[in-house]
Specification:
single chain; about 525 residues; mainly alpha; two-stranded antiparallel sheet
Length: about 525
């Protein structure tokens, strides 16, 4: 009986997509107003799942193809060894009919044997009946690379729509309160158990030491590569590949147990910080704890969260961004969180113009001090890794290098010409600078929405899996979807001990006196 009750098997990713999509619609869809903006937002969130499935299917097929190629190479090497030792020559293969028939007849494969074969069957000349063969050939089977490329194209296409929606968000002045279709207690119950199941997958999963967190060649924090990746998807690789991977992993884990423990701890801690941060933002800044609980539950239900639970380079930057938003009334604390995020994965560095412009009238010095403290601390920690000189680590940390054009991953390594990253990069820089000057007076709503927009835009020129790093913008996107009107949450009114400041008295009377 114990085996029956305790025999838990992780759901297949496709099954999770269907279940989570139906649950998302049931809990958050506005059935009495089908054409509301929130319903469109839910559709965009659900459309991210097929692209994610296609990408992982392409990568699974690549594993199968690599395993088959390894087996064929091993068989050929074994056959060559046997021939070199015994002098035995393999008989002709059946796919060479001339040689096969000549061998059966005891004849040599000369021209006479070839002439004995009907020309319509195996000769190099094509008859009139074969001229139309190309028109009836079956379509070419998609390779693993083709499948993965189409998955990335799907993801980036949906993210273009999400980017447009975020850019148009400040124009939506009327934002009625849209609560989930379930009570806060029910949403909290579902969210807690989803979190428990996901974190149990992180604890019980076998880490892959040969797969590291973050890109190895691109910009980012070098110490991130010391952590192993923790796959939480059900294993679908061939048995021989899984056995080889397990053996290699066991040997590597024996010598790097502390990194495995650290990776698991950071993954669990990051997702917990995201959930707690979202709920706290709903309670403290939106004035609606039910929206915060619903937003956090929706984050846990998304297929992306279930498939990337063990990726620290996805979840940790997202947690830091969420807590930077939560601490926006304290510029020093917000600067500490945002500076840590920028030093960890580089791309949030381009959020600094937006946040500096938000604090420009009040709090900019404290915010700048917090950013500098975080960056200097992270720079000092790079001394721990002695594999490269400190200067090399700093160049990678701040992206002080020419955009790489080789050894790329994601869609840029699957057939897209890397040179086209340059105009996208220029457009991204212009967008970052544009947010620094528009709108002139920023509030909490524009701060959240534009931060999410920049993290979405970073996916298009990210050279190492751009489109898959959705955790960088998903929590902020969900907060943008559920937020109320926040036009009064500007720096001049909120930076006063962490609460809304009272209107300042005019100083005219004092000046006259």
């Amino acid at each position: 009986m114990g085996e029956i009750l305790l025999h838990y098997k992780r759901p297949d990713p496709t099954t999770w997509v269907y279940l989570s999509s139906f649950l998302t619609i049931g809990l958050f869809f506005v059935f009495h107003r089908c054409w509301s903006m929130r319903n469109l937002d839910l559709v965009l969130l659900i459309l991210l799942a097929p692209g994610l499935l296609i990408v992982h299917e392409g990568r699974r097929r690549q594993l199968l193809e690599n395993e088959e190629a390894r087996i064929r190479a091993a068989e050929m090497e074994a056959a060559e060894t046997v021939r070199s030792v015994t002098g035995y020559v393999d008989p002709p293969k059946p796919d060479d009919p001339v040689a096969a028939m000549a061998a059966l007849a005891g004849e040599s494969t000369d021209s006479s044997a070839a002439d004995a074969i009907p020309s319509a069957g195996f000769s190099g000349e094509s008859s009139g009946e074969d001229e139309g063969l190309d028109a009836t050939d079956p379509p070419r089977r998609l390779t693993a690379i083709d499948v993965e490329r189409y998955g990335f194209i799907w993801l980036l296409s949906v993210q273009v729509l999400i980017l447009i929606r975020l850019l148009l968000d400040p124009l939506m002045i009327r934002r009625p309160l849209l609560d989930p279709n379930l009570t806060s207690g029910g949403l909290l119950f579902i969210g807690v158990w989803l979190f428990i199941f996901m974190m149990a997958n992180v604890i019980t999963s076998t880490p892959r030491m040969q797969v590291e967190q973050g890109p190895q060649l691109g910009p980012g924090y070098s110490l991130m590569n010391m952590l192993p990746a923790i796959p939480t998807r059900p294993m679908q690789e061939p048995a021989s590949f899984a056995a080889t991977t397990t053996a290699t992993t066991d040997e590597a884990v024996t010598g790097q147990t502390r990194y495995v423990i650290l990776a698991r701890f950071l993954a669990i801690f990051s997702h917990l910080a995201i959930v707690v941060g979202i709920i706290s933002i709903g309670y403290r800044h939106f004035g609606n704890v039910r929206s915060g609980v619903g937003c956090a539950t929706l984050y846990l239900m998304l297929p992306y969260t279930a498939q990337m639970t063990g990726r620290v380079d996805h979840a940790l930057p997202a947690a830091l961004l969420v807590w930077a938003v939560l601490s926006y009334r304290r510029p020093l604390v917000a600067g500490l969180f945002l500076g840590a995020t920028a030093g960890l994965v580089y791309y949030p560095l381009f959020l600094l113009p937006l946040w500096f412009s938000f604090y420009w009238r009040l709090g900019v010095r404290r915010f700048a001090l917090g950013v500098c403290i975080s960056l200097v601390t992270m720079m000092a920690l790079l001394v721990v890794d002695g594999s490269w000189p400190l200067g090399h680590h700093l160049l990678r940390m701040f992206g002080l290098m020419m955009p790489l054009m080789q050894d790329l991953e994601g869609v840029w390594g699957l057939g897209w010409e890397p040179i086209y990253r340059l105009p996208i990069l220029v457009g991204f820089l212009l967008l970052s600078g544009f947010f620094a000057i528009w709108p002139a007076q920023k509030n909490l709503g524009t701060l959240i929405g534009f931060s999410a927009a920049l993290m979405v835009a970073a996916q298009f020129w990210h050279a190492y899996g751009g489109g898959l790093y959705m955790a960088w913008f998903l929590p902020l996107l969900l907060l943008t979807i559920v937020r109320p009107n926040l036009e009064d949450r500007v720096a001049l009114k909120v930076i006063d001990g962490g609460r809304l400041a009272a209107p300042r008295r005019p100083r005219i009377a004092a000046d006259v006196a």
